[in-house]
Amino acid sequence: MPAISQFATLVYLATAQIPKGRVSTYGAIAEAIGRPQANRAIGQALHRNPFSPAVPCHRVVGHNGQLIGFAQGLEVQKSLLNEEGIAINHQGGIINFKTVFYQPKLCLQTINKLSKNYTP
Asked: What's the pTM?
């Protein structure tokens, strides 16, 4: 297995918190890890997720609840989310997005420990 960057580790820790039947967004994960401008980098890290399904990248969607950018294809993502009870409309949007949205949280100590500037 290739080495996993500190950034990707933070992404996987935040994503692993998303419970079954809920979804989060790239932006919410970026916020959780203290990197609010890193949406695209979050997507790249999740695209290379070696821990799926324990790190459930299929539960990460666009800021408006649209299915976007899933490595295995949007039909697979839709199927996985449907199995968890999440309804998706014909345009690929999550029905009741605000109800199923989940905001991951990482403690500052974890973020600092895994950031390059951390000094024990």
From this structure: 0.89
